[in-house]
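Hi Prof. W.,

I finally got the 3-phosphoshikimate 1-carboxyvinyltransferase prediction working! I wasn't sure whether to trim anything, so I left the full sequence exactly as given:
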Amino acid sequence: MKLIVSRSQISGCVHAPPSKSHTHRAFLLASLAKGESVVLSPLLGEDTLATLSAVKALGANVCEGDDRITIQGGNLHAPLPKGTVINCKNSGTSIRMLAGIASRLDGTTEFTGDASLCSRPMKPLLDALSELGAGVTSDNGCAPFTITGPVSGGDVHIRGDVSSQFISGLLISAPLGKADTRIHLTTPLTSKPYVDMTISAMKKHGVSVETIEDGYLVRSGQVYSSEDVQVGGDYSSAAFLFAAAALAGEIAVSGLDPADPQGDQVVISILETFGAGVVRDGENVTIRKAALKAADIDLANAPDLFPIIAVLASQAKGTSRLYGAAHLRFKESDRIMSTVLFLRSMGADISETEDGCIVTGPANLSGANVTTFGDHRIMMASAVAGLIADSTTTVDDAGCCAVSYPGFVKDMQKLGADMREE
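And this is what came out:
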């Protein structure tokens, strides 16, 4: 299904969608905790549903209710049924975190996914699990692969600059072992706020993580406690709403906790740096259109913001440099390439660098036929760009936003955007 976008002005109020990152962690930790946990207001997108399906397959009892998921955990320690297969669809978070958990369980688990997921790098994590003693089989360092456990713990070495999800997977699974687990990072950690989010979520369930000189220590003997978790709004998804307002109107977004550890909360300060009108009042953020000025933005710790920040930069006076996000080349698409491709097709003055892009603005954008490569963030960023284009923009895959923000098009229409699916 295609998305057709025409030039529009937007205004109004909308509630931020639930956080994808928090929902993944809530489902996983509830499944590992002994007792009943309730996850309130979760995001039920394609990625988080892949995680929920996986924890069911691994032994958790799940009951779906109105705006809540009840999980009876603690059964994942039982021997796994022979031939257990986990299909993580397109979810990198699911496969990377669940692989760590599978290494601690008694039995063999096979992991697979769609074509895109099966092309994404897993080798650093698979090598780390092998170092811990897991049986690992993989033809090329990607899915499909199998993990045979259980491993007890010990010292493990892993790169920190490929995916923070590798580190989160090792951390979440560590308390299941009989020995302490020390995670040694062999390169600097990128997207550290996502690891901090994992550590914060673990703490809420009664498990502490210690920082050591080159990584993290999780002591054995800790047990996850059951907890009810309220999932807050998602700054990563709200960034598309913010940018739309900064370019084409004024909107208020509610449900965004200023104390939330999400790294993508930095989008608010980025908008201020570009010169957008920003007003924060508790959990409400109002963004209004303003003349934007160029800025240099380090996205090492907030790489998911890259596509939409590039759209903003295309409308800022002067030359902006977005950098620090080389690991974006291993996302659902090569996100640096796909971002530059769609913006250039719309008339932006933009060029790739190894770890980001250089953009000179403001550009008069024209409508174009956009290829998303099945990437939800490219779909939403290009749709926002279409709001200020001189002619109609056609986005090739309207449905891929269901991965992280299923209600994106409806929310934009509510705000007055001329968008339709066909």
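The chain has two domains: 3-16+234-421, 20-219. Does that look reasonable to you?

Thanks,
D.
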